[in-house]
Amino acid sequence: MVGAGFGGLYALHRFREQGLDVRVFEAAPEVGGTWYFNRYPGARCDVESLDYCYSFSDELQQEWTWSEKYATQSEILEYINWVADKLTLRDGITFNTRVTAAVLDEDTLRWSVTTDSGEEVTARFVVMATGPLSSALTPDIPGLESFGGEVYHTAHWPHEGVDFTGKRVAVIGTGSSGIQSTPIIAEQAEQLYVFQRTPNYSVPAGNRVLTDDEVAQAKATYDERRRMSWRSGGGSPHVAHPKLTMEVTPEERRQAFEKRWELGGVLFSKTFSDQMINLEANEEARKFYEEKIRAVIDDPEVADLLIPDDHPIGTKRICTDTNYFQTFNRPNVKLISVRKTPIQTIDATGIVTSDARYDIDALVLATGFDAMTGTLAKIDIVGRGGRRLVDDWADGPRTYLGLGVDGFPNLFLVSGPGAPAVLANMVLHAEAHVNWIADAIAHLDQHGYAALEATPDAVDNWIAECNRRADATLFPKANSWYMGANVPGKPRVFMLFIGGFAAYLDICAEVAGAGYKGFSLLEPIAAER
Ligand code: FAD
Ligand code: NAP
């Protein structure tokens, strides 16, 4: 097993419960994954805390109490540590150890796993819970390495925190991480320059402290909350408006958007169920959005720069914020559009664009991740016939259900490409994947099989199905990281299953119920019988 974030920790627990002998390798010194690394100011979940936590144990659900609607990074990390202690997970994890290679021995159907500490272990199964957003991207800006001041990436934030008081700071990047951190950095810094490439849609999070009554009520009705989440499109108990966008009157439409806006958060892009498939419907949401955002920005020219005009709303991961747009009304904050005035170079003391120079003391890179495939690509994964996963995936990731890969028997992915992954509440998503993998292993053992291997046909058909579903939506219209568009040279393919969380779980259950349709069940090789 690789990784000790939400996915890996649950896998360790579940596999142990099943009596398996499990070893987890984790590159970091602690558990937490995403929430261990992303400690930038303002980091929070954007799925409600009450939903963004393990559902497999009612005891855990009842004992833990979230303090805010959207928990801070530190509270989520505290929760993950609490779970790790409660379930006695740490003794199964080798920390500070990066897996560098996993090589299949076709004769024994065993994997040889190598780490950067020189250890080599042999395993029947390899489960990659390495995270879809765990390889931070540093932009290729000329001169970046010559900058003499402080440089921070949001995904590798110093544990002791950073105090920007009295400093001139630049933030590059206006995705979720940039949008969450900018308002807080602006409060500290003497001067803040925000370098924006593509303007992003961001909806007020509507974060607040949860009252005791709310928590008690949620805990009393957790079963129903979870039932709705498992049957939903995105893994949280959200129900879209019962009618389509253009079926209602303009007044009803406005009311529905208004209600969703007041509730806050990413679900604004799911107010109506057709918003992400019908451009006319999407445009209604976009117009409402634009009106709301223009209303809070003082300078109309700054508003023009901040309002996206190149992709439909929601086709890039919609962001949530607390006073992001209002931050540009502050006298110490300046927005620089690098589309209009590109960054030419960074030197020892500042950033030079095509029309100005900005002297700074500190640089914050909120420039995102090589998502979905970047972390797996760093591991030398070698399957049948010496085939390397990176080569097989040169034109885009190839998986069946996001769980298995042809030519790589008994290699499983948690929240890999080809699954809904980041389109869903990823804690429930990880639980679903781990449960499926654990059941598959139990099935192999009960029936005397050695291994499970996706067939090339099943993989081809699944990729075609993912593409077909994506093409029926507005998502491919955006140059998003879902499409690999943020990494120079990365193939442009929509890397996720977009048919909805519940629909996806039904397919996975159907595949398992039909004796793992699309997978070959391999007999033990002669030497082992
Ligand atoms: P991770 O948490 O990324 O854990 C993977 C682990 O694998 C890491 O600890 C890493 O060190 C380890 N690892 C990787 N490669 C190796 C290797 N070769 N050897 C050893 N160890 C390795 N999702 C939501 O659903 N809701 C949210 O609100 C939300 N907010 C987010 C906020 C931020 C800032 C970010 C970056 C992501 C957010 N996500 C959110 C997505 C988030 O990544 C998932 O929700 C979830 O935490 C992923 O868990 P994981 O265990 O799959 O992966
Ligand atoms: P991101 O969404 O990929 O944003 C990266 C930003 O950096 C983009 O604005 C991008 O511009 C910009 N950028 C990249 N390279 C650049 C360059 N060379 N020059 C100028 N700008 C450059 O990354 P992220 O903000 O870290 O978020 C990634 C994902 O993590 C999110 O979509 C979400 O799933 C998750 N996340 C969630 C939360 C939350 O609210 N819970 C918070 C943070 C992250 P372009 O758009 O033009 O590429």
TrEMBL record:
GO molecular function annotation: cyclohexanone monooxygenase activity; flavin adenine dinucleotide binding; N,N-dimethylaniline monooxygenase activity; NADP binding; phenylacetone monooxygenase activity
UniProt keyword terms in alphabetical order: FAD, Flavoprotein, Monooxygenase, NADP, Oxidoreductase
SUPFAM superfamilies: FAD/NAD(P)-binding domain
Pfam families according to UniProt: FMO-like (PF00743)
Coiled coil spans: none
Cofactor(s) annotated in UniProt: FAD
Assigned EC number: 1.14.13.22, 1.14.13.92
Family from the record: Belongs to the FAD-binding monooxygenase family.
Name of the molecule in the record: Cyclohexanone monooxygenase
Origin species: Mycolicibacterium chitae (Mycobacterium chitae)
Name of the coding gene: pamO_6
